Protein: glutathione transferase
Organism: Sus scrofa
Amino acid sequence: MRRVRMRRVRMRRVRMRLGTRDWVLLSLDASGKAAGLQAGCIPAASRCAPPALPPNQPHQKGCVTWHIPRVERRGWSRTVNIRPPGPPHFLPHLPAAAAMPSYTIVYFPARGRCEAMRMLLADQGQSWKEEVVTKETWLQGPLKATCLYGQLPKFQDGDLTLYQSNAILRHLGRSLGLYGKDLQEAALLDMVNDGVEDLRRLCGHLIRHNYEEDKARYVEELPGHLRPFETLLSQNQGGQAFIVGSQISFADYNLLDLLLSHQVLVPSCLDAFPLLSAYVARLSARPKLKAFLASPEHVNRPIFGSRKI
């Protein structure tokens, strides 16, 4: 049995029938929560209500329940109150809470598969650097040879380098607390994001192959591809919130980007979907996201690469 070592802090044991799992209730701020997600700990506040803390502890409002994988403590949990500064010490390789991540996006001068992550970063108040790769540079070959899958985007988060746009979005979702409140919401968000990917692939194929000949058929079939998202919205707070749950997620940014692109490709595409139409307007009006969507950087980027729509 592995043990979790912790320095002495004010602590009390709480009897809870949880089986062979270890649950730790930590008073953390948002950065600590993000740190726990990065380290692989799973927030589980929805599984059990946190025990009441003494009223003389002013930091109790920030409590988060964590399940630490691969650790067994039978039949009880610990309530540990860790006072800032400093990250929780059972997460050994985390930077200081005040450290800001340094993000870099390496991509072509287009919205393409990077605009959803740019929208996410902008709306969350994050800064990032852009390394723009021209078509001529890409065709020369050396950069392509260094890319893991021979394609862009390439994303850097400090010393972590990622490829595959959906993997990058999920990483940002975990890092910034945009992956739902529990495992059920996370599963639904994965499902939504896969649905977005299916439609994005169909749209990309249309743009790159036989656009003039195939567009009419694509437009005819588009409502069938949009209807599942309208259905999901209707099942979540009557369509007045987000695609899943009550907080914005990485999948919302990906879906919003796809819908905005389709409103350029097929301006009337959302006329038959009032919830999706209101959803696009509502998310686009978020102050930081609205400023990004109106910025020259976003406006001047081609939506579909070299094709002018």
